[in-house]
Amino acid sequence: MSEMVDRVIEMKPTPRVERLREAFMRLRPTASIDRACIETRVMKETEGEHMVIRRANVFAAIAREMPISIYPDELIVGCHSVRPWCDNISPADGPALEAGQILNVTSSENYDLNAFSEEENRELRENLIPYWKGQGKYERTRSGRALLQFPPELADLLFANPEDFPPIPSMIYAAAVGPHYGHNCVGYENVLKKGFLGIKKESEEKLARLDPEEPEDLEKIPFVRGVIMAMEAAAGVGRRFADKARGLAEQEIHAERKAELLKIAEVCDWVPANPARTFYEALQSYYFAWILLFWETPFQWSVTPGRADQYLYPYYHKDVTEGRITKEEAQELLDCYFIKLNLNQTNKYHHISVGGFKPDGADATNELSYMLIEATMHTRLEEPIIGILLHSKTPDDLLIKACQLCSLGTGHPQFINNEVLVSQALARGTMGGPAITLEHARYACPVGCIELGIPGFDSGYNYFSALCNLAAAMEFVMTNGMSRFYNRRMGLETGDPRKFKSFEEVRGAFRKQVAWMRRVRGITSNIEERIAAELSPTVYESALIEGCIEKGKPRELGGAHYNFNTGVVGAGAPDAGDSLSAIKKLVFEEKKITMDRLCDALDNNFEGYDDLRQMLLRTPKFGNDDDYPDEETVFVSHVYASEMTKQRNTRGGHCCPGGSPLSMYIACGLVVGALPSGRLAGEPLSDGWSPCAGSDVNGPTAVLKSMSKIDHVELLGGVIHNMRIDPAVFKDGNVKRLVDFVRAFIDQKTYHIQINTASSDTLRAAQKEPDKYRDLVVKVAGYNAFFVRLNEPLQEGIIARTEHGSV
């Protein structure tokens, strides 16, 4: 690894960056109740007031009182919590407080009361738990509130009793636990250009124009007042850090660090309150605007920094031209910034995009595009997700740099087809609400793992009630709606499959099962959105989204300019496609198997039917450029996309179906029985829209051709395509074959591809000696993770992917 890094980097990371990276690797997870204490106190003090004003008061108090620190070597300051890798316990917005335990629903870590001091334990027992019991979004859902709003036929079918939680088995449909999922990109450019005081001034002018005698204006006043409070408090965060830096400088004995602390104070005295004037100020203000999103809503994933090379380049170019900064100094600042993006323990998957289009259609690549890739090479950590926005005129140099990064075996970067992304954005604008302009479509970027958004104009995604397990839909076709795992009816009754006389009956039943899933998840999603708007409207975040201030309402109530971002994650499309293909071939065309015998084999998980299973496994599979199986996965994709886009949200928008199921493809498989593809019960599903593990045997180019047959534009949320390539392909640093392969990816008009280049031998060695491979990063789904920190099923799922020996 070291030899390869030395070969491809333009400049070596500074000793400071190496020290900060090593300090990060030593961190261990912790939790804090500091934010919860502030939130609880303010909510008590403001009972009876408008909820928007209460939430604005909570944010303002947190911005003024959250404990802050500046750590050794830091040049970019601030943290999402009271310390790095620390969860903010927030009972109102995700984690629930119950029965002597902090249950953190966003993390694999559960913190019992022994994790806190005696004083903190007393605060939890005497104040926090009694006040929040039953009040937060999580507990409001658990209490059965949502259940009461389900149509009787759904409730009777999906719930064994009113105390069931999750109310819908989560790996088939969804878990209704709280709607602040992040997956958005706010208007960072506004902050850089105006500062928070500038946005506050505009809000004050808006408030002055509102007439409380007019009913419509009267409804807007609380939100606009809340924005003014939030912007004033946010503006003061810089001054808090400036004071902290000056205090540390007074005690500092080393002249170099003393000067750095005084520079930090100078920068923070000005931003984020005021417009940024320099590259350093812009980067620090950009980061402040980002961490404040977590101070308002600590529980959210993929809070996207967006198109950093576009936002920051004017400040970099001006500083370099006028001699205020060198490229080396700017690179160190970017490296420090990237390390800061890793300090969130729970809140992850932050996407930075480089390259792509300008609003006028010209290529947007600039010097910072390369420097941001270089920062990923220097830091080689999980975060941020680095996405390369590609199109037919992307410069060769940028693509070569991105492929060099890929060769390092860190799971970075993602390759995103910007031309498909633009088409997706324009298609969204034809489905209700304001039409998306061509300029906005060209400026769109991934705002989660791969899901697109329009920076500063979108309301954000709601994904927690948004899983569609297409493999389960296939199982329901073969069981007349029964779930073998849950041993009760979970799907629609679409007829006894043993009596199906034609393949079209099978396809028709599948369509009905997916339509049923859309109805279930649509109702759940709308319930969650109402709870979000009622209990926890975001004031700070909404103020950074175009439309909210003008409309006088938060994003949860439709304040954003665009409100189409209600997402649904599809899982198991190739599993369903391969199953349909096998049924078509062996049952209805070649007549080698009867539906009756196939159903018996599936009911018994192929025990006693190994000969039949081998026949099924030998049928053609998606991912080999064979039209026969490919057309069935194309069918599954189309049914899924066309059904899910019928779903509307409570904000006036519509659903954007995608295929980025995170690591859920493992868990989704656990609840699905045996399938006609030959897959056994409980085995992992395909990850995203990638071919089922081990089934793509005709090489990577054949996989690309199969993927290109899918309509990637109608899959408005994008779909994941994971691939593994033997690192021997990059022997002696040669990435030309990968460059050519990625150019072919662009030409095939598929949306996304990402490549792991860690060998199977390396991954197996990491399992045996995790300490030696503690910083080995791999691509899991749309996100990266340290391999040795993954659970064994996920590790095995990654190893099981076909390792292609050439491109």
Total number of β-strand segments? Answer: 22
Q: Which structural class fits the helix and strand makeup?
A: alpha/beta
**Percent helix:** 40-55%
Distance between the termini: 21 Å
Largest sheet: 6 strands, mixed
Q: What is the strand content?
A: 5-15%
Shape field: globular
Into how many domains do the coordinates divide? 3
Question: Any low-confidence stretches, pLDDT <50, length ≥5?
Answer: 94-113, 141-148, 162-168, 175-179
Instruction: Give the strand line-up of the largest sheet.
Output: 8-9-10-19-18-22
> What is Rg?
26 Å
> With helices defined by DSSP (H or I, 4 residues minimum), what is the helix count?
30
Averaged pLDDT, please? 89
Topology of this protein?
Elements: H1 2-8, H2 15-25, E1 30-32, H3 34-45, H4 51-65, E2 86-88, E3 96-98, E4 101-103, E5 111-112, H5 118-132, H6 137-142, H7 152-158, E6 182-184, H8 188-209, H9 215-251, H10 255-270, H11 279-296, E7 301-303, H12 308-321, H13 327-340, E8 351-355, H14 367-379, E9 385-390, H15 396-407, E10 414-417, H16 418-428, H17 438-443, E11 445-446, E12 452-453, E13 467-469, H18 470-479, E14 482-483, E15 488-489, H19 503-535, H20 540-543, H21 548-551, E16 566-571, H22 573-589, H23 595-603, H24 610-618, H25 627-644, E17 655-658, H26 664-670, H27 700-708, E18 722-725, H28 736-747, E19 752-756, H29 760-768, E20 777-779, E21 784-786, H30 792-800, E22 803-804
Parallel strand pairs: 1-2, 6-7, 8-9, 9-10, 13-16, 16-17, 18-19, 18-22
Antiparallel strand pairs: 3-4, 4-5, 10-19, 11-12, 14-15, 20-21
